[in-house]
Amino acid sequence: MGAVSQLVPQRMISHVRPIVLKPAQLTFAQLSAWKVILANDPTLQSPFYQPEYTQAVGQVRADVHVAVIEQGDTPVAFFPFQRGASGLGLPVGGKLNDFQGIIGQIPESLSIPALLKECGLFSWAFDHLPDTQCDLLSTCNGGASSPYIDFSNGWKAYQEDRAQAHSSIIRETRRKQRKLARDVGDIRFVFQSDEDEVFDQLLDWKSAQRRSTKTFDVLQMDWARAVLENLRTIRTDQFSGCLSALYAGDRLIAAHFGLIANRVMHLWFPAYSVEFASYSPGVCLMLNMLEEADSRGIQRFDLGKGDERFKQRLSNGATIVCQGAVTSNAWANYCNSVYDMARKGVRQLPFRGLLRGSKRWLDSWLYR
């Protein structure tokens, strides 16, 4: 996912063309080319860049498409997108998608506005675009940290790294887990659960958490739950959904549903029983997941955008992700800039809290 396009010989420029397909229409050769691009670009290791993710969403939503950009007869880049009303484009899965962008190198002869027009898009908004692509899109309106845990040197080396960084979270969490076992019952951890009850409880916990914080709950959308159900069924060497569970005695204490692609796992939907909040059950589950992931050859755990304290204490690296929008013409770019300035200004207003309900309503409409 480089930001700098490769130079294209003049004789090949006329042969550059995007072909817009539904995910189910991608051929074996196109999917293979997609996989080759991923394998050769270290910035494209997130599960969200895998074709399986786009296909899983495409099975549920009819507005999911992929622009296959070919040079001659060879696919050189892929642009997965979701086309909404009036040509408003979103990343595939909207709020579900934690890593977004163009996969591969777009030839210089194809501009981003031209690509959007070929896709039938007036604009394409993003909020988790790696900064490696910001030069390409040139419309990023700010960045945020998306931390990760790198344990490519092994679980033991990672623990030593945290100790040297004066982070006591691993020691504290182990102490709480021992207390949980004494107070409630023996600890049992399941890395890959097939239990429907665990999945349903996890989503109920997550929705309750969103309601309590008065933030937009994408899981209120039937299509979002259907996407997670699709992803649960995928288990291959290169991509899989992963439902993990932590029990104390016969009580389900915490659960998580995430994605694994090759050697990268993504923290996606963690939740726990608030009854046991004092034991830090979410972090207890995470440490069990990390240790088991290491034994399975996983080397990185993406934590997702956010500055939560547990992410700060567990992470040892971060990717910068940007938000903004690209459009198909200069006037639309100007309107987007004005909108972004207004949005930033609203954050400084004393009554900004009154606008949160309006934002939740807008999110519900945009990501419906």
UniProtKB/TrEMBL annotation:
Top-rank taxon, per record: Bacteria
Residue ranges occupied by any BioF2-like acetyltransferase domain in the UniProt entry: 171-312
Name recorded for this polypeptide: BioF2-like acetyltransferase domain-containing protein
Organism encoding this protein: Bremerella volcania
